[in-house]
Amino acid sequence: MAKIIRKEKLSELVWRFRLDAPRIARKRKAGQFIILRPSNDTERIPLTIANADEAQGWIEIIFQVVGRTTLILSELSEGESVLDLAGPLGKPTHVEKFGKCLCIGGGVGVAPLYPIVCALKNAGNEITTIIGSRTKELLILHDEMLEKSDRVLVTTDDGSMGAKGFVSDVFNDLQNRGEHFDTAFVIGPVIMMKVTTSLTVKAGITTYASLNPIMIDGTGMCGGCRVTVGGKTRFACVDGPEFDASGIDWDEMIKRLNSYRAFESKAQKSHVCKMEGVR
Amino acid sequence: MNTSQNTTEKRFQRIPMREQDPSERSGNFNEVPFGYSEEEAVAEAQRCLKCKKPLCVQGCPVNVKIPEFIGLIAEGKFAEAAQKLKETNALPAICGRVCPQEEQCESKCILGKKGDPVAVGNLERFAADWERQHGEVTIPKKKLPNGKKVAVIGSGPAGLTCAGELVKDGFDVTIFEALHEPGGVLVYGIPEFRLPKQIVRQEINYLEKLGVRIEKNFIVGKTATIDDLLNEEGFCAVFVGSGAGLPSFMNIKGENLIGVYSANEYLTRSNLMKAFQNNAHTPIMKGKRVVTVGGGNVAMDSARTALRLGAEKSMIVYRRSETEMPARKAEVHHAKEEGIEFHLLCNPVEIEGNEDGFVQNIKCIKMELGEPDNSGRRSPKPVAGSEFDLDCDVVIIAIGNKPNPLIPSSTPQLKVSKWGTIEADESNGKTSMKKVYAGGDIVTGAATVILAMGAGKIAAKSIIEEL
Ligand SMILES: Cc1cc2nc3c(=O)[nH]c(=O)nc-3n(C[C@H](O)[C@H](O)[C@H](O)COP(=O)(O)OP(=O)(O)OC[C@H]3O[C@@H](n4cnc5c(N)ncnc54)[C@H](O)[C@@H]3O)c2cc1C
Ligand code: FES
């Protein structure tokens, strides 16, 4: 059991929870995640540790309501507890002084990007952050990113904030202006990662993407999280979640994420109908 | 003359255990055998010859006092029989159901030379169930607390047994379990129809009553390392019983298509996450035509689960013949009765899917048996040009599990073999690292419940002696 010590709405669909988890707060490193189960009869879901404080013994998770389990999670109140919380899982981000780093986040993917930005900053890197969302109201962690990055570029699909377009367009602009980067980290919806990493890789930038396949145990026991990287099957929960983007089989990943689409939408509908229309 | 002939004949005939009808049970998850009635148990127990030098005991990896407990059943002393069992086997209700008795105790029974061996497993199950159902489970005498803390990693049969022995001896025992429910393979792997989860839960409750603490959602190597437990958290010793939970794949084309599962994932979805229940929220692909690859207990459990989840056809593909199948004979028999189709002496070469990435069929090649390999089993070789297709929408890979590298990789001082198993002395469970013991599948590679229990017990004994 882990108590929710703070609950905060970041946008219409995105929540930030602060959880009492001293052990995880002590061990976690940038890039790692937890698995939680809000209550009985819900799924075990992986969520990146978006922030943590070792001294105070808490971690933060940021999640978007996309299915039944995240919906039930979002309905828990401050002071209540999530039933099961395990972690920290996965390999930490490989952090060193790379030089000029490019950190690109889309949608709720901005959340898992934040601890990486912090870690890269602490290691003395110069950081350009590009964050994007569909519209202004859905953009998260803008202030936090401003604080930790040397420069933040914002983009929205509808142009309601920053440049109109996608994060990949912003990257193209930078490239056209002749800017050079040593390393890139890209996190977001899988299509966004596919498109964006293909550009950064083509530009000769070593690029890492953080993958979010379906998981159960998060410890290497089921193989449900397998992805193909560089022609080899890897378990994202133990070998990742970050991989060198140049070798990721994005199409396979996209297909596998759709394994239970029919099932999930049915389950969510039966939980509540009030969410209708928000997806 | 006639009557004596009858009794002789009876002596050689086992009292059969009543079971759910195959056509009915293939549609539900209730346990298959019903268990003996008191009369049946007494009659079966009376068949025992009470040999002076009981070979059955030697056939048992933990040397259960077989003739003694069977003798007590024959006298109608059921609670005493259960007590006798528990002197050597902490989990008789479980072992009675899942041990490969036909290769162990029952294979040595003298009666087996002329007829059916005594049904040791059925009787073990009977005594343990009787005790549980009659509320006669007594808490054994515990030694006074000695104030020494021991950490047990993993709550499978190895960990549970080790914890039970230690807590009875006065140790302060904490089990650390990665998953949200304790029991190891007993809860996430073996299905309800073979081992009702209520039985496992009761065994665990019993341990908790004895004073064992269980910390769930605690992944040793991640949440804390073995070094942390020993150096920072005040544990005097650690027992590693983390099992062999890493699924093997075949590395053939199409293995990452949608609908291809490791047996671990398929069974975990069904058992641990309860996808087998009608109102389940955990998704699982309920294939119409399901192919399971492998010939062990894990394969039988997967194929029979698929049938119960509604498959019209559930098939087993195994590369050797039935004689080489490592599964318990009873399970192969049950699977056949339920209509599982066996494709023996053939091996998958490729899985093919449609454009959305869903499985459509599995391509197999026929095999023939060559000379026996190191394990004594005859090694199979492909027959050139004999490929054929099996249409299917779900494929379950049940070709074995290896130890999870999480603990070894976070504990560099711990010596591991080239198979990834932790090296430990069989006679005392000691590893290459001081104060660290190991046993069960993490040491042997995927094996059996009883061997894991035996190893847990041996390690506990040596911890008690050392500390
Ligand atoms: C489907 C299936 C059917 C089987 N059928 C039979 C049968 O009929 N008869 C038989 O005798 N045997 C059978 N077996 C084999 C038997 O279950 C195993 O040999 C036995 O359970 C091994 O016990 P164990 O305690 O070593 O490990 P496990 O039962 O595997 O338990 C290990 C536990 O440790 C936990 N763990 C792992 N790593 C960590 C970590 N880092 N930190 C904390 N916890 C951790 C795991 O989550 C797990 O709960 C079967 C196995 C399977 C998979
Ligand atoms: S989530 Fe099960 S192996 Fe990765």
How would you characterize the overall build of this protein?
The complex is a heterodimer of chains A (279) and B (467). By secondary structure, chain A is an alpha/beta fold. In chain A, helix 5 runs parallel beside helix 6 (190-202). In chain A, 28% of the residues lie in helices and 32% in strands. Chain A is globular, with a radius of gyration of 18 Å. Chain A folds into two domains: 2-89, Translation factors (Elongation Factor Tu (Ef-tu), domain 3, Beta Barrel), CATH 2.40.30; 100-258, Nucleotide-binding domain of ferredoxin-NADP reductase (FNR) module (Rossmann fold, 3-Layer(aba) Sandwich), CATH 3.40.50. Chain B has 467 residues and is of the alpha/beta class. Chain B is 36% helix and 16% strand. Chain B contains 19 helices and 16 strands. In chain B, helix 16 (329-337) links the parallel strand 8 and strand 9 (341-344). Chain B starts with a helix and ends with a helix. The A-B interface holds A 23-24, 27, 37, 41-44, 68, 83-89, 216-217, 219-224, 226-228, 233, 238, 252, 255-256, 258-260, 263-264, 267 and B 178-180, 216-219, 222-224, 245-247, 249, 251, 255-256, 258-259, 261-262, 264-265, 268-269, 273-274, 281-283, 285, 356-357, 404-406. FE2/S2 (inorganic) cluster is lined by residues 215-218, 220-225, 235, 237 of chain A.
What does the secondary structure layout of this molecule look like, with pairings?
The complex is a heterodimer of chains A (279) and B (467).
Chain A: E1 2-9, E2 14-20, H1 22-27, E3 33-37, E4 45-53, E5 58-64, H2 68-74, E6 81-82, E7 84-89, E8 100-106, H3 110-122, E9 126-133, H4 142-148, E10 151-156, E11 163-164, H5 167-176, E12 183-187, H6 190-202, E13 206-210, E14 226-229, E15 232-235, H7 236-239, E16 242-244, H8 250-257, H9 261-271
Parallel strand pairs in A: 8-9, 8-12, 9-10, 10-11, 12-13
Antiparallel strand pairs in A: 1-2, 1-6, 2-5, 3-4, 3-7, 4-5, 13-16, 14-15
Helix pairs in contact in A: 5-6
Chain B: H1 2-11, H2 22-25, H3 38-45, H4 55-59, H5 66-74, H6 78-88, H7 92-98, H8 105-108, H9 120-133, E1 149-153, H10 157-168, E2 172-176, H11 185-188, H12 197-210, E3 213-215, H13 226-231, E4 237-240, E5 246-247, E6 260-262, H14 263-272, E7 289-293, H15 297-308, E8 313-318, H16 329-337, E9 341-344, E10 346-353, E11 359-372, E12 378-382, E13 388-391, E14 394-397, E15 401-402, H17 406-410, E16 436-438, H18 441-444, H19 449-466
Parallel strand pairs in B: 1-2, 1-4, 2-3, 4-16, 6-14, 7-8, 7-14, 8-9
Antiparallel strand pairs in B: 5-15, 10-11, 11-12, 11-13
The structure holds flavin-adenine dinucleotide and FE2/S2 (inorganic) cluster.
